[in-house]
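Below sits the subject:
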Amino acid sequence: MRKGKSTNFEENKSFLFFEQHVPKTKNNILSDWIFFGLVIFSLIATVYGITLYRNTVISPIILFGIVSIGFILIFLGFWIFLGKKLSLISILFSGLVIGGGISYTSFLFVNKSFPTTPVKSFTYSIQNTGELAKGRYGRCNSPYVVISIHGIKKQLVFPCDERNESQNAKKVVLDIYEGFLGFPFISRKELK
């Protein structure tokens, strides 16, 4: 055994996501990279899904159910088809990240993309205001207001330019349409 090389490499084994005992064949390497691509895609989709969630009036319990269904489907699929190649931890991780992330984002995207009603304007009273943490690369603390829509408390985030307006505002005007899956989507928001 030469110094500086991985044992897996010397034994010609795959070692990216699959277990170390899986032979390093073209199909396994391709599967490894497809799996890696799905994980990256679902992480990016989840970040986009968060922006969709901020503008969708939906109970977090319903979204938890959607994520759970996606997790179970991907978990069972990987368990059946890749159970001998992946460890239980890998299957659980992939079920949560891939299944949960893609189902979460897909659900919110389909709801947003196909409106079933015309856009209507509504005015809501602001219950609370605040600022989000700036984060490592943020340029400012984004202001937010909290309102209640259909019994669901919703945090509406505004650009940094509207910090002063958000602290003094008493009402917010929202343009809302009902999405394809029946959940209202906020297309525009304005502080009053």
Notes: Residues 5-10 have pLDDT under 50 and may be disordered.
